[in-house]
Amino acid sequence: MKQIRKYLTELSNAHGISGYEGGARDIISGYLEKLTDRVEIDVLGNVVGIKEGDGLKVMIAAHMDEIGFMVKHIDDSGFIRFTPIGGWFSQVVLSQRVILHTGKGMVYGVVGSKPPHVMKEDEKGKAIKIEDMFIDVGAKNKEDAKSLGIEPGTPVTLDREVVDLANNRVTGKAFDDRAGVAMMLRALEMMETDATVYAVGTVQEEVGLKGARTSAFGLNPDVAIVAEVGIPADHPGMEKKYSDTKLGEGPMITVIDAGGRGLITPRPVLEWLRKTAEENGIKYQLEVAEGGTTDATVIHLTRSGIPVGVVGVPTRYIHTPVEVLSLEDLLNGSKLIAKAVESADKYFGRKE
Ligand SMILES: [Zn+2]
């Protein structure tokens, strides 16, 4: 548990919106250097740790990018307007403390808006739109803000570090999908296999599954696993009639996502992941999701088709600064991935 907590904490606390994953990638490639035989970074910025073997080629993918914002312009008074990068619910963004990653270093700011005291009655009941919010870095005017290194294109992330909750549960800002990366790294440590393993930190998942697409094409694996977060239905606002999935009940294996418009997991992959879990005493949950999708969708449709499945750690409140998961689920997800890589040849081995 200690090791995976360390991975998750370091990775979630790192910063990197889509297309600007450098902060997370540096940490990931550092670990991949130790856990694999060689590390490569491709044109889009995906990082690949390659474990040489003489068996099947198995790809494990987890995206490195987190949702965030980008500076659009600075007004004359020094307030900064920004655009969301990735899927944000506007009410989550309000009043957050943020970090602007400028060429001169990190600059702290807060997301401000009109105070409730001066709102008209009809404004009070309404959600404030992101386009009506702004970042206040303490600048006195436009020139002052510019002198801090802020300009159109400056990436912005949330300022929120991982802390422990009760029962080995933790909360942080970027579990989607640094939890997947942590799961992948821990799985690499656990596995004993003669497969060739490609452990990939992908880029730009949150803005269109981009890195996984080129990476899967280039690596051309025989089979792939995506390490992700899944949405449990175990808190107020989530109804049992939709799903019975819970935190602490083990990693989720996706059956379909986006109502089948995303991934329909191939039956042999489902059998492989389920049997591997059952044979190794790892509890798991099946997920039928109506919204959202993952890198697996594009990996599946690469070249003439690649068998792929998703192992998702149940994570509450995703796409907020207070995502919550159970470290036990995360560790069990690693075990499942490690064991699945070990047994991949049995299910997908090339017939002589
Ligand atoms: Zn994700």
Through-space gap between termini? 41 Å
CATH fold annotation of the largest domain: Aminopeptidase
Shape: globular
Q: Return the string of H and E elements.
A: HHEEEEEHEEHEHEEEHEHEEHEHEEH
The CATH architecture of the largest domain comes to 3-Layer(aba) Sandwich
Radius of gyration: 21 Å
CATH class placement of the largest domain: Alpha Beta
Question: Describe it for me?
Answer:
This protein is an alpha+beta fold. It has 2 domains: 2-66 and 173-348, Zn peptidases (Aminopeptidase, 3-Layer(aba) Sandwich); 68-158, Peptidase M42, domain 2 (Elongation Factor Tu (Ef-tu), domain 3, Beta Barrel). Helices cover 30% and strands 26% of the residues. It has 10 helices and 17 strands. The protein has helices at residues 2-13, 22-35, 90-93, 121-124, 142-147, 175-190, 210-219, 267-279, 295-300, 327-348, and strands at 38-41, 47-51, 57-63, 68-74, 80-85, 97-102, 105-112, 134-136, 155-158, 163-164, 169-172, 196-202, 223-230, 252-256, 285-288, 308-316, 323-326. Strands 1, 2, 3, 10, 11, 12, 13, 14, 15, 16 and 17 form an 11-stranded mixed β-sheet that branches. A 6-stranded antiparallel β-sheet has the order 5-4-9-6-7-8. A hairpin with a 5-residue loop joins strand 4 (68-74) and strand 5 (80-85). Helix 1 packs antiparallel against helix 6 (175-190). The longest helix has 22 residues, at 327-348. The chain is globular and about 65 Å long. The protein starts with a helix and ends with a helix. The mean pLDDT is 96. Zinc ion is lined by residues 63, 176-177, 205, 228-229.
